[in-house]
């Protein structure tokens, strides 16, 4: 995507000037947005683990690509079985909910452990780049399949199409294009009259900080709303559909996404508003039957609830406390939306009702 007039991905390898023949990994520091634009250069698997844990890189597809590049960094130090296994374990422990991380690590390890040590490092960088390129192609396909849904909705109503989204599932959450925002970008580029309601997405405010920033960069009309406003807007006919991403989808179509998604799905069902989930197929966990029981829900630090960051009139970013000193806080990062509340799941292979998801997976890759 473009920032100013320059094309960017969210993650990319760069030559290490200090060590000829070695690479580093550049990332956009998403914790600095929207108030500052900062690119970080990572040199080790531990730095990648820290970047994932601190959410400097975030979003299920991007975490998968980051993990792949993390293993490439590890292989640059040593390509032994023991080193790679330790690196894989560290990456898998960095954030437990998003299935793409595990998918990417397992794919990389299958490739690397099957070849001689001397060939592993070069192949790790090649395979990590393949994973990143595949993510871009997948998201471009999601954009086109989702565009068809939006065009069908627009054909049934006059005027502007109002779309609500929760959290950030745009290009910042992937290598490029995004998942939930990809159809929105495609619709805008096709000349459709659209407007996006952007949930703030407490406590980390990925909607207010990241989605709003992305849409602004692309020129898409939007308004930021507090998380509790969505149901009211649906009741008054001001939302034509909801599109969200996901960190993990079960094989029966239950959707694990940012905390608060379930409440939006309930409101959408009550008001007959279509609820779409846009995901690449690596986000679908074929082994998962009961998402509410079996998905480990990340519990993030309480300070994310207690503290909020903002830009002061002096142009500095400051953190302020919004709860009484001594208050306890719980901070589950995700919730599960049951398949019965999902209208359609938009994948790179097409759009499917949750009940058809398993058959689709068997057709494209029977295992």
UniProtKB/TrEMBL annotation:
It catalyses: 5-(methylsulfanyl)-alpha-D-ribose 1-phosphate = 5-(methylsulfanyl)-D-ribulose 1-phosphate. InterPro entries: IF-2B-related, IF-M1Pi, IF_2B-like_C, Initiation_fac_2B_a/b/d, M1Pi_N, NagB/RpiA_transferase-like. SUPFAM superfamilies: NagB/RpiA/CoA transferase-like. The active site is at 247 (proton donor). Catalyzes the interconversion of methylthioribose-1-phosphate (MTR-1-P) into methylthioribulose-1-phosphate (MTRu-1-P). NCBIfam families: eIF-2B_rel, PRK05720.1, salvage_mtnA. The record marks 167 as: Transition state stabilizer. It is an enzyme of class 5 (isomerase). The gene is mtnA. One of its GO terms (molecular function) is S-methyl-5-thioribose-1-phosphate isomerase activity. Keywords: Amino-acid biosynthesis, Isomerase, Methionine biosynthesis. Transmembrane segments: none annotated. Its EC number is 5.3.1.23. Pathway: Amino-acid biosynthesis; L-methionine biosynthesis via salvage pathway; L-methionine from S-methyl-5-thio-alpha-D-ribose 1-phosphate: step 1/6. Substrate binds at residues 58-60, 95, 206, 257-258. This is Methylthioribose-1-phosphate isomerase.
